[in-house]
Amino acid sequence: MPHSSGNKNMNTKIRLVSACLLLGIGTGASAATSPPQEAKPRIIITCDPELDDNNSLIRFLLYTTDFDVRGLIYAGSQFHWKGDGKGTTWWVPGREYARIGKTAPMTSYRYDPNERFIDDNVDAYAKVYANLKRHNPSYPTPDYLRSKIREGNVAFDGDFTKDTPGSELIKQEMLDSDTSVLFVQAWGGCSTIARALKSIEDIYGSQPYWKELKDRVSRKVILCLSGDQDDTYARYIKPFWPDIRQLETGGMQVDLTFFGPITASEEDKVYYSPEWTQQHIRSKGIFGERYRVWGDGKQMVKGDIFDFFGVSTLDKDELQRQGYILWMPLQPKGTFISEGDTFCYLNLIDNGLDAWKDQSWGGWTGAKTDLPSDIKEADKPAYIRKQMGFPDFTPAVQNGFAARMAWTVAPTMGAANHEPKIEGPSQIRVRRGQKVTVRCKVTDPDKDKLTLRWMQFHVGGYQGNLKIDNAATSAPIFTIPADAPSGQEIHAILEVTDNGTPPLTHYKRVILKVE
Fold it and tell me: Omega into 502 within 30° of 0, i.e. cis?
């Protein structure tokens, strides 16, 4: 499909030229000085009407204390597209709809035009906002979140020939004067993101300052892709914007996909079980009602033959007789289904690991790292965990979510649990062979009993072992290895877990910089 220049109206040009003036592009101005690193990562969410997007969005909204939310945008994908409402037909060879036997172009595919799950979840957020604010005053207002909702390129599978309100918002954020990282997330297809970039190229590609502008946008943006669900990353973004980075996780450390309940270790299976999910998620008010689980009787699009998860009768033969396509084993009613896109933002949560500041540091999602060329996809998480020294993050991730769900229905601080707090240095300059005592202040807002554990993450260059004495205290003694090369970093992590219900974990990363 050809790339259209889209609607270049005068107002759009004025806005974008103003943005470039702020950036000092093509104006003779000196390059803008980067501001101090933001306390919160800037995030734009694009998502399609899939049940796991709905679930990921609920968790995301409960963690908006930790983000600078810049956009909440409806997107399309090869699996869900709305059509233009004018009877226009569409067809892309080799898609899911072709594989199930459809042979003629269609006007839409697996998209209910009345499905407004972003709006509905923000409306639910508004109803629990008063409770949430009591537990953390940093929650953004419902009106602010509503002001960031847009519709993107949802009409047709992989079509990014036209500007949309969603693509315009992304474009403006990419071109604004803030040079801090902008995490643009594609939980569905990338067509809305591709349109934003194509519009920038169409308007500025012939200008003498184009290379500088393109480099600035490329340095600013990190794409967090839940796959390439409409091929627009492969067809346009990667070849035409090759310097835009992607979120790199190595191997997903906490499996919140459809297969999480199947692949979880025996000790972690509880966090996907009907009992745990009912106690900590489904029973917690309006968000609990909106959170999708196996056999809940719901579908995002009525009669969708791929959405068999919520159908109340969980008998395989009956589902197949009704025409459903079963692509994974059925699970007991009430079991966790999926948050297949949550991995895109887990490393951006303010849990003390600061993983969003450097992709190689590692966090709840994983870390950027070199992997053996012959390693199987399913083996990556365990390999990463072993090589980097990561603990099992699943309990911390799920209990953190459970606590925030509890906040939605808990009218007072004393009615719910809250994360421990840690104060201490982030970086220390050290010498080889030196013994260093690091002192942290560890407190708990609920006065819970705390368990402390120091560990080493094998990131930052040095792959040897750091000797840690007093590892269960707030004042450990580190013995800097004699073979640690000058200039490398050693990452020591304090993990603090309280004994509340549910138990909550927070971390502190201390980087030992070898002189």
Answer: yes
Q: Which two tokens stand for residue 138?
A: 């940093």
N-terminal to C-terminal alpha carbon distance within the chain:
55
Backbone angles phi, psi at 225, to 5 degrees: -105, 130
C-alpha separations of 396 from 27, 44, 236, 496, 498 in Å: 49, 25, 38, 10, 11
Alpha-carbon span 358 to 154, nearest angstrom:
33
Q: E strands, 244-368, where?
A: 245-246
- What value does the mean pLDDT take over residues 501-505? 98
Burial class (CB in 10 A: 0-12, 13-18, 19+), 297: exposed
Question: What is the rounded CA–CA span in Å between residue 385 and residue 388?
Answer: 6
CA distances from 248 to 114, 223, 345, 370 (A): 35, 9, 12, 11
Report how far residue 32's alpha carbon sits from residue 269's, in angstroms, rounded to the nearest whole number.
50
Q: Smallest Cα–Cα separation from 336: which of 377, 281, 387?
A: 281
d(CA 29, CA 50): 46
Determine the Cα–Cα distance for residues 407 and 62; give it in Å rounded to an integer.
Answer: 9
C-alpha dist (Å) from residue 440 to 94, 241, 353, 388, 472: 57, 43, 15, 23, 12
Q: Which of 9, 155, 127, 105 is nearest to 61 (CA)?
A: 127
Could you read off the pLDDT of 60-78 as tens digits, one per residue? 999 999 999 999 999 999 9
What is the mean predicted confidence (pLDDT) over 492-496? 98
Phi, then psi, of 333 in degrees rounded to 5: -55, 135
User: What is the arrangement of strands in the sheet containing 477-479, beginning at the earlier edge strand?
Assistant: 435-437, 477-479, 467-469
User: Hey, what's the torsion of the CAs at 417, 418, 424, 425, to 10 degrees?
Assistant: 130
Sheet holding 505-514: strands in order across? 427-430, 505-514, 489-498, 450-457
Pairing, β 42-47 against β 505-514: unpaired
* C-alpha dist (Å) from residue 83 to 78, 155, 159, 186, 413: 12, 4, 11, 20, 47
**389 φ/ψ sector (left φ>0, alpha ψ -120 to 50, else beta):** left
pLDDT greater than 50 at residue 503? yes
Query: pLDDT digits over 405-432, tens only?
Result: 999 999 999 999 999 999 999 999 999 9
* Cβ–Cβ < 8 Å for 41, 181: yes
Strand 245-246 with 221-225, pairing: parallel
- Rounded to two decimals, the pTM is 0.93
If you count DSSP H runs as helices and E runs as strands, how many of each does the chain have, helices first?
Answer: 17, 15
CA distances from 454 to 68, 98, 351 (A): 30, 53, 15
**What is the pLDDT, as a whole number, of residue 11?**
45
